[in-house]
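User: Some background: our group keeps a shared notebook of sequences we're curious about, and every so often someone picks one and asks for a predicted structure to add to the entry. Today it's my turn. The entry only has the sequence so far, pasted here. Could you supply the structure so I can complete it?
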Amino acid sequence: MSLTVPIILGSVRTDRIGLRAARFLAARLESRGHAAPLVDPSELKLPLLDRMYKEYPAGSAPEPLERLAALYRRSDAFLMVSAEYNHGVPPALANTLDHFLEEYFWRPSAICCYSAGQFGGVRAAMPLRAMLAEMGMPSIPSLLPIPRLQKALDPDGTPAEPWLETAAQKFLDELEWYAEALRERRQRGTPY
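Assistant: Of course. Here's the predicted structure to add to the notebook entry:
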């Protein structure tokens, strides 16, 4: 069964390397028959959160928010690609996520974290995991940390290290399982 899994990129830096991981994961999801649209805060250019999408009168939200709301409503899961900024969640990722709430409910999320160093962004993944759960899209148990991303993936998302294919397959198998299970359950109704 085909899923829709937006990949939400967390960095707006000029020389960001997270696009490599987003491209890699999008290609793997698409090869499984799923839609994996990229949500790029650099292209969205959302202002710092002043008003959530739901706080605009119907039909009056800025176009990027309307587009994201439509995508999120038809989504089955969400995949975060997050750098680690000072052991925390990148501000662009938090800002992109904070514009919505109900659109995330009852859908799983997954975290691919990365860094240029040896820890692969896992220190950012922990507060991000708590944030995603609070927003109604708890993360799956597995993470996909990618240390030294600039060496692990080339600019088009092709892995240079064989372990990455194996790790991504397990990670996406788990996300797929949760997304299918929760989609089936959502179709029968939610607590509210």
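Suggested note for the entry: Helices lie at 18-31, 41-44, 63-73, 91-98, 122-134, 149-152, 163-187. The chain has a mean pLDDT of 96.
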